[in-house]
Design brief:
Layout (H helix, E strand, L loop, with lengths): L1 H53 L2 H4 L8 E5 L4 E5 L4 E2 L2 E12 L5 E2 L4 E17 L2 E12 L5
Antiparallel strand pairs: 1-2, 3-4, 4-5, 4-6, 6-7
Amino acid sequence: MEVLVAISILSILVGTLVLITNMYLSGAESNLYSTQGAYLAEEGVEAVKSMSDVQWSNITSLSTSTNYFLTFSTSSSAWATTTKASSVGIFYRTFALSDVYRDAEGHLVTNGGISDSQSKKVTVSVSWMTKTGTTTKIISAYITNILGD
């Protein structure tokens, strides 16, 4: 009888340890994907900035009503855009541009104002599937034609 009680207690302990380990590993995987998604979003903003630094028309030629994907050419070591869906591993990254408006003093405004053709707002979205659904990281930044081309 004592052996049966000991085996039962041991089974409960082992089961609990397996459950805790599984929960820990699941959380670690979730944190890893969240960190990777944030880095990919930041890289997306930097890629768009890089394209604007090469030639501002790389940005102004893009529509503000379209979501774009980024591609990197290893032969030219440069970023480019496409409307063809692409992914980075399990991650799906897009970006969109928005027009920027300023008031009479040159401050950014969300309503009204004067269109600033030398600035754009870039919003990068990175999504991936998880066990519970889709997770998305979004980051936005303003880019300007600092080189004046």
